[in-house]
Amino acid sequence: MIMGCIELANYKVISFDKIPSTQTYAYDMIASGRGADHVAILADAQSAGRGRYKRTWISHHGNLYVSFIYNCEERDARLSYAVGVAIAETLIAFGVAPTIKWPNDILIDDKKVSGTLIEYSGRFVIVGIGINIKTNPTVKANYKTTKLDNYTNVTRDELLNKLMRNLDKWRCADFRDVRARWTELAVGLNRNVKYRGEKVELIGINENGALVLRNGTHYMLVYGDEITIDAITS
After folding, report:
1. What does the alpha-carbon distance between residue 93 and residue 75 come to, in Å, rounded to a whole number?
2. Measured in whole angstroms, how far is the alpha carbon of residue 92 from the centre of its chain?
3. 197 and 172 belong to one structural domain
4. Segment 49-102, tens digit of pLDDT
5. Which residue, 13, 67, 95, 176, could crosslink 128 as a Cys pair with Cβ 3.0–4.6 Å?
6. Are residues 181 and 196 both part of a single domain?
7. What spatial distance separates the first Cα and last Cα of the chain, rounded to whole Å?
């Protein structure tokens, strides 16, 4: 059920109490010709939320679930880092000390508090963001999650308002600034990670948004649709 449609921080926010997926709703808007720049689909809960690689995103009441529609003429690997920095800076504004796990998972004390799903549709990009505020799901034993309520007192609307302003700021920023800030906040740099079953060193990102990995003397440039970091290892 739709709850309302308001203008907030230069966004048109379409709000629901519960829908299957804010991301899917955004897709349907675009497919039906109703997609527009700076539209945000917000839900109190989702019955079929999803993350990267079609993983289920558990979506109980009390957290932030939102998908943003932006004009985008072509895919840009750098967008993912701008989004990650925007989310991290939003949490910092409320007194939290987050880190970023490649490419844009947000951690607090090495526990996941936020995830992002970026998908393209026609001349638009859909940026789906979930942030745990009141609850955090139990996914599996070795997959730790947390919630903002453990660290700060912030309402969903306060968080959303700040997030929208930070998204506009960092999406428009020079990528050199985005890259520098992402590197400051990133966890796992210059440490070993698993890439396609092999242990490699995570060096950083380059000016085009490619992930830089090193295997001995061999350097590799890979992008988000080519890599899964299974774990950070010693």
Report:
1. 29
2. 15
3. no
4. 555 545 555 567 889 999 999 999 899 999 999 999 999 999 999 999 999 988
5. 67
6. no
7. 48
| Residues 98/110, Cβ–Cβ less than 8 Å | no
Q: What is the pLDDT of residues 192-222, one digit of tens each?
A: 888 887 889 999 999 999 999 999 999 999 8
Q: What is the pTM of this model?
A: 0.89
**CA-closest candidate to residue 185, choices 62, 58, 90, 73:** 90
Sheet holding 39-46, edge to edge: 2-8, 11-19, 39-46, 64-71, 124-131, 111-121, 105-108, 99-101
200 with 218, same domain: the answer is: yes
Residue 69, strand partner residues? 39, 126
Together in a domain, 12 and 34:
yes
List, as one string, the DSSP characters of 95-164: T---EEETTTEEEETTEEEEEEEEEEETTEEEEEEEE-SS-----BTTB-B--GGGT----HHHHHHHHH
136: nearest Cα among 101, 108, 110, 112: 112
Per the CB < 8 A criterion, the answer to whether 175 and 78 are in contact is yes
Q: Say yes or no: 110 and 207 in one domain.
A: no
Residues in the chain: 234
Instruction: Check whether residue 167 and residue 216 sit in a common domain.
Output: no
> What is the count of structural domains for the chain?
2
Specify whether 21 is located in the same domain as 73.
Answer: yes
Residues of the domain holding 96: 2-185
User: How many CA atoms does the CB half-sphere of 230 hold within 13 Å?
Assistant: 8
